[in-house]
């Protein structure tokens, strides 16, 4: 099946013209690698002569949950070092006897653990990293585990702490050793970035403290509070590294990936796998899974179709309004995973474009 590259470029170019984002980098492919990729727009509207390009570095925000936390936990699960269904209090002394001790890793990965919904780390626990860790791990649950699907950053933060407990390694070192380096993802790292790399980074939101756009420093406030490394966000990467990562997942024969891309939440809504979730607007038979990042990033995986897709933007440069990018993302997904019968996605795409 071929890709309509002209329509992808036109769609993403429209987002530049409508100031949904300054620029975007994209790629689509299969198990053999990228089949098509490109870039539109500029890195920074204040530097109109500097285009977005294949080696632009992006703050991918919550894609960290997949790239660092989910993938590292998968390696530990395959090692036999993690039982997804054992209550955490049975093997993690920091949470034994605490509310979190009754929760399982599977419930954290499906966002059914009953955790408080907002991070609010500084307001609740101050600015000391040890105090924050202790506060997060000892916090009371918001509801009973397994009762509801409620997305919260705390799930990934706690699972990052769990991975560090199980290995004795900081999360950035663990992800680099177990995932990024073995896959050749040499441009993937946690920030803050050194100056020579930050210059290629797509700027995100205006920082009121400095009156400049964040560039090479994580946008996520909780991540910055924790020194740039945590399970919530903080990873910086390029499109080629994400292509390698997704290509690997298509060829991965482990049960970890297969289980993760299967609904794990029963009849609860919205449906969730392990951190991944079904792409909005797709039918279960299409088997398209996605994870997004708040900065304007997303990656999709469709095992049955043996396809993947990446869309990287810095939409936060302009606004926190989600809707314009949501429409473009959904249209991009339709082009990246076209309906073999034709027409179905085509109508959806034309109606999903911003006015």
Describe the structure.
This protein has 355 residues and is an alpha+beta fold. The chain is built from 13 helices and twelve strands. The strands form three sheets. A seven-stranded antiparallel β-sheet has the order 3-2-1-12-11-10-9. The longest helix is centred in the N-terminal third of the chain and has 16 residues.
Low-confidence segments, given as residue ranges, are 343-355
Structural category is alpha+beta
What is the percentage of strand-forming residues?
Answer: 15-25%
Sequence of secondary-structure elements: HEEEEHHHHHHEHEEHEHHEEEEHH
| Global Rg | 20 Å
Question: How far apart are the termini?
Answer: 29 Å
Helical residues, percent: 25-40%
Quick gist of this model?
This protein is an alpha+beta fold and 355 residues long. The chain contains 13 helices and 12 strands. The protein is globular and about 55 Å long.
How is the secondary structure organized here?
Blueprint (H helix, E strand, L loop, with lengths): L4 H13 L5 E8 L2 E12 L2 E5 L6 E2 L4 H16 L25 H5 L11 H5 L3 H10 L14 H15 L3 H10 L8 E2 L4 H4 L7 E2 L4 E2 L7 H5 L9 E3 L1 H13 L3 H6 L16 E2 L10 E5 L3 E6 L4 E7 L9 H14 L7 H9 L3
Antiparallel strand pairs: 1-2, 1-12, 2-3, 4-8, 5-8, 6-7, 9-10, 10-11, 11-12
Helix pairs in contact: 1-12, 2-6, 2-7, 12-13
What would the keywords be for this entry?
3-stranded antiparallel β-sheet, alpha+beta, 13 helices, disordered C terminus
């Amino acid at each position: 099946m071929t890709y309509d590259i002209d329509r992808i470029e036109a769609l993403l170019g429209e987002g530049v013209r409508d100031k949904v984002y300054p620029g975007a980098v994209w790629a689509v492919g299969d198990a053999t690698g990228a089949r098509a990729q490109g870039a539109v727009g500029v890195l920074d509207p204040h530097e109109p002569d500097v285009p977005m390009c294949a080696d632009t570095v992006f703050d991918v925000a919550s894609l960290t949950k997949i790239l660092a936390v989910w993938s590292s936990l998968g390696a530990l699960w395959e090692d036999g070092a993690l039982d997804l269904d054992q209550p955490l209090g049975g093997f993690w002394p920091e949470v034994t006897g605490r509310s979190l001790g009754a929760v399982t890793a599977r419930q954290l990965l499906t966002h059914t653990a009953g955790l408080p919904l907002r991070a609010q780390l500084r307001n609740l626990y101050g600015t000391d990293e040890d105090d924050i860790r202790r506060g997060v791990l000892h916090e009371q649950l918001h509801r009973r585990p397994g009762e509801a699907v409620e997305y919260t950053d705390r799930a990934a933060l706690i699972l990052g702490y769990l991975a560090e407990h199980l290995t004795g390694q900081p999360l950035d070192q663990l992800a680099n050793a177990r995932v990024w380096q073995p896959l050749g993802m040499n441009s993937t790292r946690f920030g803050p970035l050194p100056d020579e790399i930050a210059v290629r980074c797509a700027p995100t939101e205006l920082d009121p403290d400095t009156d400049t756009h964040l560039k090479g420093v994580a946008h996520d406030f909780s991540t910055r509070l924790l020194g740039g490394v945590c399970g919530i966000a903080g990873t910086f990467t390029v499109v080629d590294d994400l292509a390698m990562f997704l290509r690997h997942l298509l060829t991965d024969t482990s049960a970890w990936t297969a289980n993760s891309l299967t609904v794990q939440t029963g009849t609860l809504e919205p449906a969730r796998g392990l951190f991944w979730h079904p792409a909005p607007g797709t039918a279960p038979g299409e088997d398209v899974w996605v994870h997004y990042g708040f900065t304007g990033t997303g990656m999709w995986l469709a095992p049955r179709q043996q396809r993947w897709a990446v869309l990287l933007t810095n939409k936060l440069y302009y606004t926190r309004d989600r809707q314009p990018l949501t429409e473009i993302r959904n249209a991009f997904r339709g082009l990246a995973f076209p309906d073999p019968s034709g027409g179905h996605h085509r109508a959806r795409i034309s109606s999903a474009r911003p006015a």
